[in-house]
Design goal:
By secondary structure, this protein is of the alpha/beta class. It folds into two domains: 148 residues, 3-Layer(aba) Sandwich (Rossmann fold); 64 residues, DNA polymerase, domain 1 (Orthogonal Bundle). The protein is 46% helix and 11% strand. The chain has ten helices and six strands; from the N terminus they run E-H-H-H-H-H-E-H-E-H-E-H-E-H-E-H. Strands 3-2-1-4-5-6 form a six-stranded parallel beta sheet, sandwiched between helices. Strand 2, helix 6 and strand 3 form a beta-alpha-beta unit. Helix 1 packs across helix 4. The longest helix is centred in the middle third of the chain and has 19 residues. It is globular, with a radius of gyration of 17 Å.
Length: 224
């Protein structure tokens, strides 16, 4: 059921719902080592939040064809999922806000560059699946952030116009994608991938350290 103001919230996953950055870094480092290509922290910072095809092109140029990239992407995500199964927790303030928004009647979706299997795993581990009404992930898109496609697909699945959506993000490219899609954006700096000033410069409407600083009323005000 939609809220009285017909609003929706679209959530990024990595760095926003959960902090899985180190698990992704280690998976990329292990895969790249097998391909005789070092993977540095700078590489990670430059590509975090992008879709795997864009990351592979950044790292390897045209070295691999599409079918090879599909196989390599699967290998990387299997490394990540294997590590994630040991346990991942929602970040501070996330569950309270998710539950509060659900109770208030807001529609909620995941909008992530990750493959659906990764999203399903995180939702299962954190027992949060009942709080979401839709999911937009890498299989639903052909363009990565800062292109707004992943968020626009999520809004379409929710049946809510983009201007009635608030995106929760932690990355500059994600904030830019939200703005490009005509959506409001709350940026979270807790995991520290991007400093607050860069998130503001990218166009975030609110920047908070954790989502403990955001209430249901805060979301309503952004949409008013």
């Amino acid at each position: 059921m939609l809220s009285s103001d017909n609003g929706a919230v679209i959530w990024d996953v990595d760095g926003t719902l959960v902090d899985t950055a180190e698990l992704h870094f280690q998976a990329w480092a292990e895969l790249c080592k097998s391909l005789d290509r070092p993977f540095s922290r700078d590489d990670f910072a430059a590509t975090f939040g992008q879709r795997n095809p864009e990351i592979f092109r950044h790292l390897f140029g045209e070295r691999f064809g599409d079918s090879e990239l599909d196989d390599l992407g699967f290998r990387k995500e299997e490394l990540y999922r294997s590590a994630a199964r040991s346990g991942v927790d929602l970040l501070p303030g996330v569950r309270q806000l998710l539950e509060g928004l659900k109770e208030a009647g807001f529609r909620q979706a995941i909008g992530s560059s990750a493959p659906r299997a990764n999203v399903d795993l995180i939702v299962d581990i954190t027992r949060s699946g009942h709080l979401f009404d839709a999911c937009s992930c890498s299989e639903d898109t052909t363009r990565g952030k800062p292109d707004p496609q992943v968020f626009l697909v999520a809004a379409q699945k929710l049946g809510v116009p983009p201007e009635r959506c608030v995106v929760v993000e932690d990355a500059v490219a994600g904030v830019e994608a939200a703005r490009a899609g005509g959506m409001k954006c709350i940026a979270v700096s807790f995991v520290g991938h991007h400093p607050e000033e860069k998130l503001r410069a990218a166009g975030a409407d609110r920047v908070v350290r954790t989502l403990e600083g955001i209430s249901v009323e805060s979301v309503r005000q952004l949409l008013s």
